[in-house]
Amino acid sequence: MSSNLATKLREGTKKSHSMAENVGFVKCFLKGVVEKNSYRKLVGNLYFVYSAMEEEMERHRNHPIVSKIYYPELNRKASLEQDLAYYYGANWRDQVVLSSAGQAYVERIREVSATAPELLVGHSYTRYLGDLSGGQILKGIAVRAMNLSEGEGTAFYEFKDIADEKAFKTTYRQSMDELPIDEATADQIVDEANDAFGMNMKMFNELEGNLIKAIGQMLFNTLTRRRTRGSTELATAE
Known about the structure:
Blueprint: H1 5-12, H2 14-21, H3 24-30, H4 36-59, H5 77-88, H6 100-115, H7 120-145, H8 165-177, H9 183-237
């Protein structure tokens, strides 16, 4: 039996995917405008989100549906811990705070796990397929924009337990297509994936204000330096 879930998810989340890419924070990121403080807050939120999702996936590893797309080699919690240690230091656990949008995201994952575990498929798809598809591009942008050294602060984008990411994505999609679900359940999973995109966008929107403030401050500092330099040069000329 084939549910064609992979195709349904790809087609059914196109609009949400496009909307997520057009959030100000993401557009700035894709253009190479990345402010380290905002970025590390995002990494902190993702740590809590992935921790929740991976705990619940592990909890349901024998579930008739969840078990079919349970691949521990996808887990991101440990890599996010590594990045947080880089951005915050050894005591990062005392500094990282979950935002309100991140809290709502985590609560939804917990709720789904408790009431309809099969919907975790929508969350898994939204997070992991995106990570595998655009991870290396985003890693390159982060390295250049924040002037990172190779291997520092970008562990999140590295899937060291997956030798061939393209082949793995094919396997993952095939596993989704073979899930023992009916049309109604498939539709519910697509709806949940769209909701996951929405929760992601809310996290990005929270960070957008921080990014705009940071960019404004950088521009202000640049203009101030120029004015000061100009005044100094004028005084010297006089």
